[in-house]
Design brief:
Helix content: 25-40%
Strand content: 15-25%
Mean pLDDT: 91
Low-confidence stretches: none
CATH topology of the largest domain: Rossmann fold
Shape: elongated
Oligomer: single chain
Strand order of the largest sheet: 2-1-3-4-5-11
Length: 273
């Protein structure tokens, strides 16, 4: 055995991935494993290089954030693989660590409803798991609130710019939402910027909830209410699953589903009627 574990991530600019790697790195070192960070940057040339590197370096196993490469690669079963950041219900032939995106989103939108909001918008990129939209929809349905397609914005990209542009559009409507659920914190930060430019006060005139609880979310001028992912647990479970798979290659596949938690800060308040 080489003792080398490949950690394949799309990027580390997004703090979710940088934090995941830091945690995995720490756990690997505790167990005298060598974590090798491999970034795809959503680039096919890089992906082809990673495939060769894994074979050349004789890696013992891989922890892979699912949407980072074509799946012909992991189907080759070059070595044991554990998936993280993967949609629930997919890739049944692999060990994986997932979070309960559906319940996390549902809890966020339920909270907005509890504090009086009925016109609740939704902003997403095209990458983030569909389960977060399903949670938004289900929470509205539970309270018989009709889904207004005019309040839903799904755009390409995964950044503040998505939240900013979608926010300008939603908040310029005559019948604008009183609250918006964003599928990640970067989108929520872009939305905060749009609301500031349009002179819409947060949280007095608009409540905003994000998802991920990235470090900056608590240090914003208006600290962000958000859904926290258990990053330490995701990393630990992924490493332990991989070690177990390396030792027991024939054992049945395991899915670990971890709970999120709603962190209430200053970007949400009772609806202003």
């Amino acid at each position: 055995k080489s003792g080398i574990i490949g950690i394949i991530l799309p990027e580390i600019k997004h703090s979710f991935y940088s934090e995941i790697f830091e945690e995995i790195d720490e756990i690997c070192l505790e167990r005298e494993l060598i974590p090798e960070l491999l970034l795809t940057e959503f680039n096919q040339f890089r992906i082809d290089g990673i495939k060769k590197q894994i074979i050349y370096q004789k890696m013992d196993g891989i922890i892979l954030a699912y949407h980072t490469l074509d799946f012909s690669f992991i189907n080759e079963k070059t070595c044991p693989v554990v998936l993280i950041d993967v949609p629930d219900g997919n890739f049944e032939n692999f060990d994986k660590v997932i979070i309960d995106n559906l319940e996390g989103a549902k809890e966020a939108v339920r909270y907005l409803i509890e504090i009086g909001h009925r016109k609740i918008g939704f902003i997403s990129d095209t990458v983030t798991t569909k389960k977060r939209f399903d949670g938004y929809r289900d929470a509205l349905k539970e309270k018989n609130i009709e889904i207004d397609e005019e309040l839903i914005e799904i755009r390409g990209g995964r950044s503040e710019e998505v939240g900013y542009q979608a926010g300008l559009k939603l908040l310029s409507k005559k019948d604008r939402p009183t609250a918006i659920f964003c599928v990640n914190d970067l989108i929520a930060i872009g939305l905060l910027r749009a609301s500031f430019e349009l002179n819409i006060k947060v949280p007095e005139q608009l409540s905003i909830i994000g998802f991920d609880d990235i470090p900056v979310s608590r240090y914003l001028p208006i600290p962000l209410t958000t859904v926290s992912q258990p990053i330490k647990d995701i990393a630990r479970e992924a490493v332990l699953l991989l070690i177990d798979r390396i030792k027991n290659p024939e054992k049945p596949c395991v899915t670990k589903k971890l709970k999120t938690s709603l962190i209430i800060r200053k970007s949400t308040s009772l609806v202003n009627t």
